[in-house]
Design brief:
about 280 residues; Pyruvate Kinase, Chain: A, domain 1; alpha/beta; ion transport; 6 helices; ATP_synth_F1_gsu_CS; about 60% helix
Length: about 280
């Protein structure tokens, strides 16, 4: 019984140590989530109005043959996939992997962002043309470089379209992977907009040549910030769950320890009483 109590006590100490670690990681993730969410919301508003502006302009332009407005006949769709560089974030990456397998063909080119995704896809037969890892949480320069590289491939007609697989952030407990198309830009026809007499200076095609690269960089960075925010939210939730589970296990082990201790005391009392009765 003494050995059993010692083993239980050792497990209790181990669980308490684990609980302290997961609690600390939960607090760190919560702090990062708050900061990352602020960055995301500020940029999301800018990206939203940028997208709205482009959507309002496109229906008034009488040149649907512009290369940014139609998919290339040659090539496969390029998908930029966002995953995390670190683990301990629950099912965050697993959900992205599942969508890759469901939505992306093995011959479709992929740019994989995040060391976790790089490690996962390395053992599979997907066509990865580039991997990026170790990016800062708000690395606009690297995102802009990726956007320009993808845009250049689209202009050279090496790819049919540009798609983004990211994790959409709804709230601190709800986030899900989404696959969206950046290029070609789909203009939704609006009769009221089309009938307006809009004058462009310079010409509309030149406006698009300047506006679309800015549009692609803006939206790609916005999706990246959403992904990083979702990652921190998932990590905070995972560490909170781990801490709660550790606390529950500690309570169970403490109960087992007390029961073992009481049983040992009862046995000792029984032996003492039995010995006293034998002496009589």
């Amino acid at each position: 019984m003494a050995v059993n109590k010692l083993a239980i006590k050792t497990r209790i100490r181990s669980v308490e140590s684990t609980s302290k670690i997961t609690k600390a990681m939960q607090l760190v993730a919560a702090s990062k989530l708050k900061r990352q969410k602020e960055h995301m919301e500020k940029n999301r508003e800018y990206a939203y109005y940028f997208k709205e502006t482009v959507s309002e302009i496109l229906p008034t332009i009488k040149f649907s043959k512009h290369p940014f407005l139609k998919a290339n006949a040659e090539g496969k769709p390029l998908t930029i996939v966002f995953t995390s560089d670190m683990g301990l974030c629950g099912g965050y990456n697993a959900n992205v992997y599942r969508m890759i397998q469901e939505e992306i063909g093995e011959d479709d080119p992929i740019i994989m962002v995040g060391s976790r995704g790089e490690g996962w896809i390395h053992h599979r037969s997907f066509r990865v043309i580039k991997t990026v890892s170790g990016m800062d949480d708000n690395d606009y320069g690297m995102i802009a470089s990726l956007a320009d590289e993808a845009l250049a491939m689209f202009c050279r007609q090496e790819i049919a379209s540009i798609r983004i697989l990211y994790t959409h952030f709804k709230n601190a407990v709800t986030f899900e992977p989404q696959l969206v198309t950046l290029l070609p830009i789909e203009a939704e026809a609006d009769e009221q907009q089309i009938t307006r007499d809009t004058i462009f200076e310079p010409e509309g095609d030149k406006i698009l040549d300047t506006l679309v690269p800015m549009y692609v960089r803006s939206l790609l960075f916005s999706y990246y910030l959403e992904t990083k925010t979702s990652e921190q939210a998932s990590r905070r939730t995972a560490m909170e769950t781990a801490t709660d589970n550790a606390d529950e296990l500690r309570t169970t082990l403490e109960l087992q320890y007390n029961q073992a201790r009481q049983a040992a005391i009862t046995q000792e009392i029984t032996e003492i009483v039995g010995g006293a009765n034998a002496l009589e």
